Structure formats: C-alpha cells, structure tokens
Amino acid sequence: MKKPNYDSYTPDELHAELCFAEALLLKALLTFIEDETLVSFIRAGIKIRSCYNSYKECNVILSSRSWSENEKSYKEHFESGVRLGIGAFNLMISLLPSKIIKLLEFIGFSGSKEQGLSELELCYQVPHGLRHVLCVLTMLTYHLVVVYVFSQEEGDLEFCDAALRQQLTLYPNGAWFLYFKGRLEFMRGDVDDAIKWYTASVESQDSWPQFHHICYWELCWANCVALNWKRAEIYAAKLAEQSKWSRTTYNYQRACIMLMRGYNCLSRDELNTVNQLMA
C-alpha cells in the first residue's frame, strides 16, 4: 500500500483527521454509557481501538510532515490535540483493573502511565495550542483526584501549583481552576484555604448547578476535617436535597455528622431528624 503524502494535506484536512479521532472517542464513550453488558464493552473496545489507531496516524503526521513557518499556529493546535489524545488514552488505560487491561491487549492495544504523562507534559509545553486548557484540566484531575482515589501514590503538587498560578492569572473566575486550587490546598493540609477556594468556585457561576455538588462534597469533608460539624451538615443536607447521585449516602453522611456533635448537644428536633435519616 502506498504511503500517504501528508505534505499534500492542507491544514484544514489535517485538523479534520484529528477531529475524526476525537469523534470516534466520543462515540466509544457513548457506547460505554449506553449499556453495561460485556457485549457492549467489547463493542466499545473495538471502537476505541479504531479511535486509538486514528490518533496514532495523527502522531505519524505530526512527526513526518514538513511544516512550513506559515503553518506554525496550525502545528501547535494539531500537536496539542494529538498529544492530549494519546496521553489521556495511555493514562486512562493504565489505571484500569488488570483483567480489563488483558482484554484490551487482546483486542490490540495497551497503555503506559509513563508515556501518558510524558505526552501530556509535552502538550502542556504548547501554551498556545487549542487544547492546552483541556490538557491542564486532565493533568490536574490526575494529580489531585485520580492518584489519591485509585492508588497509594502522591500527586505532583509542585506542577499543580505552577499550573494553577498560570491558569488563575488568565482565568481568575474559572470554576474548575478555583475548584482545583481548593483541592490542592486540601491535599497540602491547609483546610481553611481549601474551604475558601471551594466557596469561590461555587460563587463563580450559577449556570451549572451539578458542578456545585462536586464543591459541596469537598466542602462537607473539609469542614469535617476542621471539626466544623454544623457547616459540614449544611453541605451534606444540600447534597441530599439537590443531588440525585445517592441520597441514601448523603442522608447517612448527614446523620453521622450530626451525631459527631455529641448526642447530648442535639435538640429534640435534631434527634428526630437523625432518626428519620437513619430509618
């Protein structure tokens, strides 16, 4: 088969290849969400393989094409998309259970955490790339949330601090960056600062109430760590009233927080509330 002449592709055609890979990724994710059966999982895995192959082809284009000086901005946008896709893929797959990884290897690909982080760091070094912000959010999510939930490792807090300083200068009211700043301070053990940043994230926007629930969850636990049980109960109650994720969990959490104040410190109405929540 004749090797494609990537130098003959226009910048728009190159970006179309990248958008095609991203569309395949979204299609695969929708297949996962649509049904949780094994057949659906295998079907989604095959789609992910097609998607990953598209990203690999885009990577070949990035490394083999002769980019002119006039195409510098196009290359930056293209490179940020390619490195974000390949990096996120490798990172995501490397975090899956070993049985799932074996199945993915059976259908044609595997993931490396080191390669994933390396690609994301290269993407981060392209500050004017179209997908630079998505790359920053991906790395912050990994270092501040994923690492602490799914492993016993420590996140790269120095990188997170530097990235957040830069992004908050550009987007001082960015809800996600305010949230991650709170998460960074929480991981450092500075609970008061964490509460301040989480609150700022909530107040930064009203158009996405579901995002508030993420902040309420963090605010609830931050206040628990600070032994501020009354404030923690307020956020647990908000989650129980507003979020549809698991009201059983939220109600149990609220009851436990109320009891932490001390059984003798609760009023009769509050004791009745605890009994209703536990019923």
From TrEMBL:
<dbReference type="InterPro" id="IPR011990">
    <property type="entry name" value="TPR-like_helical_dom_sf"/>
</dbReference>
<dbReference type="InterPro" id="IPR019412">
    <property type="entry name" value="IML2/TPR_39"/>
</dbReference>
<protein>
    <submittedName>
        <fullName>Tetratricopeptide repeat protein 39A</fullName>
    </submittedName>
</protein>
<dbReference type="Pfam" id="PF10300">
    <property type="entry name" value="Iml2-TPR_39"/>
</dbReference>
